[in-house]
Design a protein that fits this description.
Distance between the termini: 61 Å
Strand order of the largest sheet: 4-3-5-1-6-9-2-10
Helix content: 40-55%
Number of strands: 15
Number of helices: 25
């Protein structure tokens, strides 16, 4: 117990680092990390199998998944053995750094377990850039749901079992750093043998992604990105798909009047398509809007995460694939212009109503400097009754409260307006009056389906407000989602982790007001096209060039692009019924035929010749996006 207390208090690294036992102390830390790494992968592999695959060769697959982590830790042990031969001061500092690095890496592995269990992807260093003071409350609310008592107990058991295993090995064998490195080499060889014997990690890209070592995945993807940027300098590609251009409305079919954009959080197209078509009674209001207007079946989120989706929609800019900070942070202090700013300059009232928290991931700070006329979120909404427990469990007051506030804002308008209504009830853990109140109870897919019924009621509140105000002939309503949601498809849950259809393909319905259902409409589109489309309908030019194109533009491009970071930076695009996907982690380009393979279960790996064109296109996109820079706003300046 005395040695355990030393480890927990950190005195293992502080005391007697200079003595001959220093190597054994560092070796103990590394042995503990070996054990925790393997136990963590046991849990990760178990999670994989509970999603969509049978539980075969469990221990073998856990060994295979732990290979990269073992190699990193063995390398640290080897470095420690070499440092032990250096002069006293260098040895002391070096061994302390090795011990701290091992501890931090072990923490990264534990965080990866939480991320895998709750989000279906390994923890990525990229996410650390999204944690700041503004997000503290949101992170606390999320962890209250994600880190359940059961999961916390399991994680505690993993850490304690790893500590005990490491101490027992050291007690009986008294290993130094050299011996710890050799033990790691043996374990790594066993892991490589397990990889050869176990088919699962080799057959499922999603399984490989989830089991990836967080540090190795980040480093590998960064190297692939740099190589692609270098390749883009030698392969010419027409940049018409993504080149900046001004929005100059020239289409007289649909211009004039109000526009309301309704975003349902985390709604994949496939799970709502029957409702849009009126084949079910799940969403009668949305089905009615679709009957009177138009819907697109090939509309995409350019990035399956809310904050990025919101920002790129406002700016009509593709996200930068930089892997350091989200665009909301990167562009907050830049002299960029949103499409609501253009509308406001033209005399329109503008507003954004969200039932969630605009402070998440720097959105509120961005909007302070690039304002929308009226902002309402859970910090300012006033709702009836005591909703404290709902806020604690779901981090929002409720879409019913939100849409009543939106309806009141509509009633007060004297000028033409743009209103963005963002419904958070459809976001995990999917609030609905039909669901058990405790977010941990009930099947997630069923909870999400019930939340869609509540969302339809909320949409109906907005439509009724427009009708009561006598604005129905002058108000176009667009309904979409910020991104999709996975419910076990491809071994993943929720969103932000892949660009499979369930996470990036979203609904799009446009109806009412000046919109003519007979008008030509682009067959494919994405969020960056929303701003140009709304400006076109309002007859207002953009303040800055945009990468999106109006869906009413007869020359609307034939391709739409999408990206994600997470544990596997991935980019791709859809052209017709074909989808190209480039995985940075695998350094591989695949093609899907979405007619013959709508569930994306049969990827065709493209070899050098066939991959050249699509790879060059995506490399050129990355290179172009990296060249886009904007000057800083002057001190104290807001636009």
């Amino acid at each position: 117990m005395g040695q355990l207390r030393n480890i927990m208090t950190g005195s293992l690294l502080r005391r007697r680092v200079r003595g001959p036992a220093a190597g054994q102390r560092i070796a103990t830390v590394i042995l503990i990390a070996y054990a925790i790494a393997w136990l963590a992968k046991l849990l990760v592999v178990y999670r994989d199998h509970t999603v969509d695959t049978p539980l075969d060769n469990y221990l073998l697959e856990a060994f295979a998944a732990a290979g990269s982590s073992i190699l990193i830790l063995a390398s640290l042990a080897l470095v420690a053995a070499l440092i032990a031969r250096l002069p006293l001061f260098v040895r002391t500092v070096g061994l302390v750094l090795i011990g701290v690095s091992t501890a931090l890496y072990t923490v990264l592995l534990v965080l990866s377990v939480i991320s895998t269990i709750k989000m279906g992807t390994t923890f990525n260093l990229y996410w650390l850039s999204m944690v700041d003071g503004e997000n503290a409350q949101a992170m606390k609310a999320y962890l209250a749901i994600a880190l359940t008592p059961q999961l916390a107990l399991v994680l505690f058991a993993i850490v304690m079992a790893g500590i005990i295993a490491g101490l027992l090995v050291q007690r009986f064998f008294a290993l130094g750093c050299v011996s710890a490195a050799l033990a790691g080499a043996v374990l790594y060889a066993m892991a490589m043998a397990a990889v050869a014997l176990s088919p699962a990690p080799l057959t499922s890209p999603a399984v490989r992604q989830v089991r990836a070592d967080p540090l190795v995945a980040f480093t590998t993807q960064w190297q692939v990105r740099q190589r692609l940027l270098e390749a883009a300098q030698t392969i010419p590609v027409n940049p018409a798909d993504w080149a900046l251009q001004d929005v100059r409305p020239e289409n007289p079919c649909c211009s004039g009047g109000n526009v309301i954009l309704i975003t349902m959080d985390s709604v994949p197209y496939a799970r709502i398509a029957p409702a849009i078509a009126g084949e079910t009674d799940q969403m009668p209001t949305l089905a009615a809007l679709a009957r009177k207007g138009r819907s697109l079946s090939a509309f995409y989120s350019n990035y399956p995460a809310s904050a990025t989706s919101l920002t790129l929609t406002l700016l009509s800019l593709y996200p930068e694939i930089h892997g350091v900070l989200g665009d909301t942070h990167m562009l907050a202090d830049r002299d960029v212009a949103t499409f609501p700013m253009a509308l406001a300059r033209a005399g329109h009232d503008t507003a954004l109503f969200m039932s969630g928290d605009l402070a998440n991931y720097g959105v509120r700070d961005f909007l302070k400097r690039h304002p929308i006329g009226t902002l309402e979120d859970n910090a300012t909404l006033r709702c009836d009754g005591d909703r404290t427990q709902r806020m604690a469990a779901y981090n929002h007051w409720g879409d019913d409260c939100l849409t009543r506030a939106s309806a009141n804002w509509i009633k007060q308008r004297k000028r033409t307006y743009f209103l963005w209504v963002w419904l958070n009830g459809t976001h995990y853990p999917y609030y609905s009056s039909r669901n058990p109140f405790d977010p941990r109870n009930g099947d997630p897919a069923r909870r999400a389906a019930n939340s869609l019924r509540d969302a339809d009621t909320a949409i109906g509140t907005v439509v009724d407000a427009v009708n009561r105000a006598g604005q129905s002939g002058n108000t176009t309503i667009i309904v979409t989602s910020d991104h999709g949601e996975a419910f076990g498809e491809h071994g993943t849950a929720m969103h932000g982790t892949t660009i499979f259809e369930e996470q990036v393909r979203v609904p799009f319905v446009i109806s009412g007001g000046k919109f003519d259902p007979r008008a030509a409409l682009g067959e494919t589109g994405s969020h960056i096209d929303l701003g140009p489309t709304i400006l076109s309908m309002a007859g207002v030019p953009s303040l800055r060039p945009m990468q999106g194109r109006s869906l009413l533009d007869p020359d609307h491009r034939a391709r739409t692009y999408f990206f994600t970071g997470g544990s596997n930076t991935t980019m791709g695009y859809r052209e017709g019924d074909t989808k190209y996907v480039y995985s940075f982690a695998d350094d591989e380009l695949v093609r899907y035929n979405l007619i013959r393979d709508p569930d994306e279960l049969r990827p065709m790996v493209l070899q050098t010749a066939a991959a050249a064109g699509p790879t060059a296109r995506m490399a050129a996109f990355m290179a172009y996006r990296q060249t886009l820079v904007w000057p800083k706003l002057k001190t104290g300046q807001g636009r």
